[in-house]
Amino acid sequence: MIGVLSDTHNNSANLTLGLQIFRARQVDRLVHCGDVTSPLMLELLQGFQVWLVKGNNDYDWMGFRSEARRLGNIQYCGKDADIVIDRHRIAVCHGDDESLLDTLAHSKLFEWVFHGHSHRSDLEMIGKTRILNPGALGGRHPHGEDRSVAIVNLAAQKAEFITLDAVTPPDPRA
């Protein structure tokens, strides 16, 4: 299983809660679909193997590349990624370039295409390709979208969306 997240927009509290969910579910591989916003946020991703693409608000791409190298557990892929996890081929992009997203989705090359940008969780099929947006952890939510992440079971070809509002954070005093 892998965790999919996007649009953190420097919201460290929601990122931390999302990471706690992944740890509790024994998910140690993550795909981040961009808009982390600050390279300093990558520090929170320690302990996970991470693939990260650039979002339209990730202006400091050199900083992301440098921080990913320094940490060692993050592969900064630039604008898009073509990755294979457990023999499953996955494309990743942020989603702000609709032409790129459409090309990946209709290419018939991928089992999954992960993207963010809209801040709305969604799963749709185009042919045999599953197009997944995990939703957002931060940023604006003009239509009242929930903050969410997704866990994808590649072998079963299923995705589960987890809304952060429905999760009770652990008591730090416990």
Largest β-sheet summary? 6 strands, mixed
List how many beta strands DSSP finds. 11
* Sequence of secondary-structure elements: EHEEHEEEHEEEEE
Roughly what is the average pLDDT, rounded to an integer? 93
Mind explaining what this structure looks like?
The chain has 174 residues and is α/β, with parallel strands linked by helices. The chain contains 3 helices and 11 strands; from the N terminus they run E-H-E-E-H-E-E-E-H-E-E-E-E-E. The strands form 2 sheets. Strands 4-3-2-1-10-11 form a 6-stranded mixed sheet.
Task: Show the helix and strand layout.
Blueprint: E1 2-5, H1 12-24, E2 29-32, E3 49-52, H2 61-71, E4 74-76, E5 80-85, E6 88-93, H3 98-106, E7 112-114, E8 121-126, E9 129-134, E10 148-153, E11 158-163
Parallel strand pairs: 1-2, 2-3, 3-4, 6-7, 7-9
Antiparallel strand pairs: 1-10, 5-6, 8-9, 10-11
Features:
six-stranded mixed beta sheet; globular; alpha/beta; 174 residues; Purple Acid Phosphatase, chain A, domain 2; 3 helices
Task: Tell me briefly what this model is.
By secondary structure, the protein is of the alpha/beta class. Helices cover 19% and strands 31% of the residues.
